[in-house]
Amino acid sequence: MKAYILDAYDKGNQLRLGEMPDPVVGPDDVLIEIHATGLNVIDSKIRNGEFKLILPYKPPFVLGADFAGIVTRVGANVTRFAIGDAVYGSPRQGRIGTFAEVIAVDQADVALKPANLSMEEAASIPLVGLTAWQVLVERAKLQRGQRVLIHAGSGGVGTFAIQLAKHLGLHVATTAGTSNLDLVRELGADTVVDYKAQDFSDLLSGYDVALNSLDGTTLAKSLKVLKPGTKLISISGPPDPVFARQQGLNWGLRQVMRLLSASIRRKARRRGIDYSFLFMQANGEQLSSITTLIESGAIRPVVDRVFPFAALNDALAYIDTGRAKGKVVVSIR
């Protein structure tokens, strides 16, 4: 199969288009002909080597964690899908590789594609949709009427999380650049802070949860807007000891994670706030719930640009600029 291959960790390194062996299909797997793949900031971070201590990838390997496509083969134990089904999803850790023509994925990580979306639109959803779901529904357990701050509202996770939060009946505040203020308002944000002209920590207070996807300075300042007894959840780090245990990291790496997060955990404890790091987990059942929301019209995809497969490196370079509104997608077929 044709695939874009990472030969070595390096910031800004271009991926090599080449041939890779077709994936082995296990008894619980479905083989998927990929029609479109979504790009994410984490793709760049993995390429740069930022996660090489905690993720099990050794070059050469294929990047990519979002797909939409057609099932072409099923393993012996597969009961949820049949050949010809249009599906989408995000493969579990250790099995990424959607920058390719085909991929084998455990059936538990796959859902039927929303009927009202194109392949390109569907490919934009899984990683950001599952991240938002696992923060707001699973980790934060937010209830109607509570208040959430979602940073970077015009980004991939932000555009989805705002819509999900409004569906859950939450009051949503978000930060965005001047040119994106109208977009996040259209998605449902109640309070919008122009980070280029305003300091959110001076304007907001009394929030129940903050979702951080930005830098350490923003993370620490987010503590100021939260009430005691609430949660600060970061998807951009630093990883915490709980995450290290869940990943099964060795003693040395667990101590590294403890040290990396020591400062923010200490500051959070002083304010009576729970800090945690969240790394999205593949989950086909949750994605099926997201499908229902999309088909009902409660959530819509936000796609900035669609690149052809031949221009995948250009798409990654565009991700690196940080200017994308919503998601960047590559059409493979």
Describe this structure in words.
The protein is α/β, with parallel strands linked by helices. The protein contains 11 helices and 16 strands. Strands 3, 5, 6, 7, 8, 15 and 16 form a 7-stranded mixed β-sheet that branches. Strands 11-10-9-12-13-14 form a 6-stranded parallel β-sheet, sandwiched between helices. The mean pLDDT is 96.
Layout of helices and strands, plus pairs?
Elements: E1 2-6, E2 16-19, E3 29-39, H1 41-48, E4 61-62, E5 67-74, E6 86-89, E7 102-106, E8 110-112, H2 119-123, H3 126-139, E9 147-150, H4 156-167, E10 171-176, H5 181-186, E11 191-194, H6 200-203, E12 207-212, H7 216-222, E13 226-234, H8 241-246, H9 251-270, E14 274-277, H10 284-296, E15 303-308, H11 312-321, E16 327-331
Parallel strand pairs: 9-10, 9-12, 10-11, 12-13, 13-14, 15-16
Antiparallel strand pairs: 1-2, 1-4, 3-5, 3-7, 3-16, 5-6, 6-8
What are the salient characteristics of this protein?
333 residues, alpha/beta, 7-stranded mixed β-sheet, 6-stranded parallel β-sheet
* Gyration radius, rounded: 19 Å
Helical proportion, percent range: 25-40%
| Secondary structure: number of strands | 16
Individual helix count: 11
**Biggest sheet layout:** 7 strands, mixed
- Which strand-content bin applies to the residues? 25-35%
Helix and strand sequence: EEEHEEEEEHHEHEHEHEHEHHEHEHE
Mean pLDDT: 96
Low-pLDDT parts are: none
Sum up the overall morphology in one term. Answer: globular
Terminal CA distance: 13 Å
| Helix/strand structural class | alpha/beta
